[in-house]
C-alpha cells in the first residue's frame, strides 16, 4: 500500500490534487492502524495539514509533498534537499510547517 501512496503522491508534485491527497491520507491511516508505527501517523497528520493549510501550488507545496515522499521512499530525499537548498525562506517556511 505504501508503494501505491508513494506512486500517487509523486504524480502531484507541482499541482494540488485533493483526491490523490485523500487517497494517500487513507493509505497512511490504514498502515498506521495496522502497524501502529508512529512514522505513518506523522505522515498522515502532515498530509492532512497540507490539505487544511491551503497550499495549492508553488514552491512550498512542492517542498511539503517532496518531504512526505522522502519519508516514504528515501530515493526522493535528494530531490527534496535540492528543492530547498538554495532558498532559505522556503527552507524556513517548510521547517515551520513541520514543527
Automatic annotation (TrEMBL):
<protein>
    <submittedName>
        <fullName>Uncharacterized protein</fullName>
    </submittedName>
</protein>
Amino acid at each position: 500500500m505504501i508503494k501505491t501512496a508513494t506512486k500517487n503522491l509523486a504524480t502531484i508534485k507541482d499541482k494540488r490534487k485533493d483526491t490523490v491527497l485523500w487517497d494517500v491520507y487513507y493509505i497512511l491511516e490504514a498502515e498506521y492502524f495496522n502497524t501502529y508505527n508512529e512514522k505513518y501517523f506523522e505522515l498522515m497528520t502532515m498530509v492532512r495539514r497540507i490539505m487544511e493549510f491551503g497550499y495549492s501550488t508553488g514552491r512550498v507545496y512542492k517542498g511539503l509533498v517532496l518531504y512526505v515522499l522522502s519519508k516514504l521512499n528515501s530515493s526522493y530525499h535528494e530531490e527534496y534537499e535540492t528543492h530547498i537548498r538554495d532558498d532559505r525562506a522556503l527552507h524556513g517556511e517548510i521547517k515551520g510547517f513541520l514543527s
